[in-house]
Amino acid sequence: MPPLLQVENLEAGYGPINVLHRVSLHVDPGEVVAIIGANGAGKTTTLMTVSGVVKARAGKVVFGGRDLVAGRVPAHQVVRLGLAQSPEGRKIFPRLTVLENLQMGAFTRTDPKGVEDDLQKAFALFPILEERQQQPGGLLSGGQQQMLAIARALMARPKLLLLDEPSLGLAPQIVVQIFGVIKDLNRQGVSVLLVEQNARMALKVAHRGYVLETGRVALADRADVLLNDPRVRAAYLGE
């Protein structure tokens, strides 16, 4: 089968600064692929460019056989094609209720019955969200807001879920819970492109991984190989 996502020689940045330098990666159907690296390596910029929020300056982003860069596909249309992102920092709507946040995740959809079914799936995945569905999102704890951000992305019923730093700032027990959910989602058939500073957790849940350094792919291999690579262990695993 062809890759679900194929990124080739991607370049992107902000203002006069180029952040990504010919980044290439792919995600096959049913995979969890991790991108690890230090702060400023270009991990978030990679996801933002794939999803169309940051405009690519060169290269290809082929999703489901369609080149999103050449086609100048806007970010909202990318969601309609089946690619949804849970952003770094969660970025929920703090004044909207939990339920309204989840409904916003389904804004591109026109199947009310399917939306309701997926809402119940979200509540089954994160029961605390059902319990607090009428509370403003801003009143949730950090971990609960992360659950809401992931569930909101899932409401788009994506073929590929982009997760940007899902463990950022969370207590260790919540991190374990979040990564357990990622495994469960993948077992249900959701493909995931995961950006994560917790390299050990990311590589344990992933099938393959990429190491970004100053906007370039420095290493790419199976996740278990990267976990045992001396360079990765020294630079990112604290060993």
Roughly what percent helix? Answer: 25-40%
Instruction: Using the alpha-carbon principal axes, give the shape.
Output: globular
Main sheet strand line-up? 6-7-8-3-9-10
Number of continuous helical runs: 10
Radius of gyration: 17 Å
SSE run: EEEHEEHEHHHHEHEHEEHH
Please count the beta strands (DSSP E, at least 2 residues each): 10
> How many strands, which pairing sense, and closed or not: the largest β-sheet?
6 strands, mixed
Please characterize this protein's 3D structure.
This protein is of the alpha/beta class and 239 residues long. It folds into two domains: 163 residues, P-loop containing nucleotide triphosphate hydrolases (Rossmann fold, 3-Layer(aba) Sandwich); 66 residues, no CATH class. Helix content is 38%, strand content 26%. The protein is built from ten helices and ten strands. It has a six-stranded mixed sheet with strand order 6-7-8-3-9-10, sandwiched between helices. The chain is globular and about 45 Å long. The chain starts with a strand and ends with a helix.
Task: Please give a quick description of this structure.
This protein has 239 residues and is α/β, with parallel strands linked by helices. The protein has 10 helices and 10 strands.
Helix/strand layout:
Layout: E1 5-14, E2 17-27, E3 32-37, H1 43-50, E4 58-63, E5 66-67, H2 75-81, E6 83-86, H3 98-105, H4 112-125, H5 127-131, H6 142-154, E7 160-164, H7 172-187, E8 191-195, H8 199-205, E9 208-213, E10 216-222, H9 223-227, H10 230-236
Parallel strand pairs: 3-8, 3-9, 6-7, 7-8
Antiparallel strand pairs: 1-2, 1-4, 4-5, 9-10
Helix pairs in contact: 3-6
